[in-house]
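Re: beginner question about structure tokens

> Can someone show what the tokenized structure looks like for a real chain? I only ever see the sequence side.

Sure, here's an example I had lying around. Input first:
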Amino acid sequence: MPPDLTAAPLTDPLRIYRYRDSLYAVDLVAAALGADFFSRLAARPSTPGGICADFGFKERPVDVMLTLFAANGWVRAEAGVFHATETAREHLRADSEWFLGPYYASLHERPIARDFLEVLRTDRPAGWSGDKASSDWHEAMEQEDFARRFTAAMDCRGRFLGRALAERLDLRGRARLLDIGAGSGIYACCIAARHPGIRAVAFDQAPVDRIARRLIAERGCADRVGVEAGDMFAGLPGGCDAHLWSNVLHDWGAEDARRLLALSHAALPPGGLLIIHDAFINAEKTGPLHVAEYSCLLMHSTRGKCYSTAEYTDMLAEAGFIPGPYADTVAGRGFMTAVKAG
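And the corresponding structure tokens:
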């Protein structure tokens, strides 16, 4: 029997998600300590641009790093200038008697920690899982074996997250949803299962589309969830009045995210609904801590990061949408909706 995609598990897997999501954060802390970041910031508070200039770092990874440190209470921003907090001055500054840098010294040579210094300096994603011989994530997804393994990883995650998203969405009056960068199609399937009036299309590149067709059929959803293959940057299929971006935009830099939202605007009819489902940083970029930690993984291995609700609001408005509020779902995820101005 196909699984019931509207059913919830009996237990909460939150801690299991968070161990994986936070995996790379300690390596970014180790990399910063190796660069004596907190001592230098304590001596000379600075703007993000000043930090980039002082250390030879780039904007995107510095933003992720500062968000992580703010969420931990190690830095604070005052009028756009970042200062080391008392905790950082006491425990992360090299000339303090309570300095904990040596406790992290053995981590400086971990492959991911070394990667972070390179990403901070170049803004180029490292090899997936720290593998120097591998392509970055975006290139690796064109390879059949990697695409199969990565899609399986996102599919098992989406089985839990997709049900919660579908339960919270208001899709009254909507008929056809395009799930963009859909992977296995699990989110489209969960939404179709929860909302009987919806038909969906899972849209992704080859070879992922072939994987999606098989999994959608195994779930008994092929009569309501179709599959289309294509390059999302080349344009999106028409004929849908709702678009879903689930855990996709965070893989791309801000310029590409804006471009993708503009493509959604072009493909949707007036009044069309856009849904961003992701892990969101708060508008002030001070947390939540678990999302700031997850953003470290994205900064390391993709061209993106976890964007803040304020950043998405600006991007959506710029693309011609009327942004709506943020809503939580499960496991530190949530969603924002927006409507195409008509």
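Each token stands for a local structural state, so reading them left to right follows the chain. The longest helix spans residues 144-168.
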